[in-house]
Amino acid sequence: MKRIAASADATYADPSALLKLYLHEPDSRAVAAWRARLDGPIAVTLFGRVELANAIGLAVARGIISQTTHGAALAALDDDFAEGRCALTDLLWRAALRRAEELSRSYAPSLGCRTLDVLHVASAITLKRTHFLTFDIRQQKLARAAGLRLITLR
Question: Per-residue b/e over 100-120, b at no fewer than 16 CB within 10 Å?
């Protein structure tokens, strides 16, 4: 798959991809390098920020990281917002949920989409993003089917 570059204002990054900026995971370096190339802040909905904070907390509950690492990861997340590397982006939830239902009806039977995947793809479309970053195969299939261009970092 060829690499696709997109400006920050055209991109929606799934929180599970952004999590790689805060926890050491496969592809963390690739996501950090991608972010360094962006020409502006990564737009994150409040829903996405909650999902990031929760995923960091889940890593503690699952024994993947320590409480110390948890605190450092949350501090790094907060710092990215404070320093403008990430920016909260408002989302019209009624429109996003309507789009999510349309996507579910059209693609869940064939792609096996999970609700959160559908909500993120619907959010990207509602925000008029053209590019989508995720490492989740089902979510990639849905994003592509919905007309979004995938950002590939591998």
Answer: beebbeebeeebebeebbbbb
